[in-house]
Write a structure and sequence with these properties.
single chain; mainly alpha; 2 domains
Length: about 140
């Protein structure tokens, strides 16, 4: 078989494996997954032989079975695809778990800052905004 025929067969195989994933994942990430596996196919054909290409196909099948089922069973993964905020929250959580001293400092700073804001807001509310608790405060 020629190299181009092997690349075409590989691309068709990877596109077929996409049907193990949910439709929203396929529409959003499908082309990138196929492109990544096609790059791996090119590297495998360049550096190794057809036996390694078959091993790549089998690994892709195993990955698609495992990850496709996980994407279908865990609907919480869909909120990450709805926008960047989900991914941002996930990254922040990971970074805070990795550095507990920074996390404690951040939480302490937020606590002090929010507490000070509450005190200042209460003082401004009572002194400047609320009416005085007397019968005719304008006569004072």
């Amino acid at each position: 078989m020629t190299r181009n025929r092997m690349l075409n067969m590989s691309e068709r195989w990877f596109r077929l494996l996409q049907y193990l994933y949910p439709p929203d994942f396929r529409s959003e990430m499908g082309n990138a997954v196929v492109e990544a596996y096609t790059d791996r196919t090119r590297a495998t054909l360049r550096n190794s032989g057809k036996i390694h290409l078959i091993a790549l196909w089998l690994r892709a099948l195993a990955d698609s079975l495992r990850n496709g089922a996980a994407e279908r069973l865990r609907p919480a993964a869909s909120w990450r695809r709805a926008g960047n905020w989900g991914r941002d929250v996930e990254l922040v959580r990971r970074r805070l778990v990795r550095s507990p001293i920074f996390a404690a400092t951040t939480i302490g700073t937020l606590t002090i800052g929010l507490g000070m804001f509450a005190v200042v807001y209460t003082a401004v509310q009572k002194v400047l905004i609320d009416p005085m608790p007397y019968k005719n405060p304008g006569d004072l």
